[in-house]
Amino acid sequence: DRYNVRGQWLIMPTDNIDINLSASYGRINEICCSAVEAANLEDLTTLDGVEPKDDSKDQVYGAELNWQISDAVKLTSISSYQDFKVSTLVDGDFAPPDLLRISEDVKITGFTQELRLSGSLESLEWTTGAFYSDDKIERGRTFTWGPDIVFTPFPLSPGLGVYDELEQTGN
Description:
The chain is an all-beta fold. 0% of the residues lie in helices and 70% in strands. It has strands at 2-14, 17-30, 36-37, 45-46, 53-68, 73-91, 100-121, 124-145, 161-170. The two termini are 34 Å apart. The relative contact order is 0.15.
């Protein structure tokens, strides 16, 4: 299941100001990304021991304001915010026995802001501005041994797992 919707709304409160608001939302919820075997599409089956999943949501909001301050000067402001989340589960060995499962959860949020002032003086055109960005990435990943694990050189048992995580922020 996949879908995406997007909308925009243009507001012109005066002759010298316009505001464009936008939003989009996307969703994916499917069984995805596995080794498969089939003579035809109706007989499609996975070769893995785990039914894989991909579940994601993406939301983006934006606003652009243009203000013609005078005949020679214009102010532009562009802002955006994004919130993206995904949760996946895959068979880590891509083989029929259920030996290794990998699950991952990722969340990415971001905000950007641009301010721009531009204009002209006789034969000179100029632009000055500033840009700001603040992003945050969080990821957690789990490796879990499946029930078909029988022999390894290490003391492993089904259900035993390793978890790692990553968190990054920046602007």
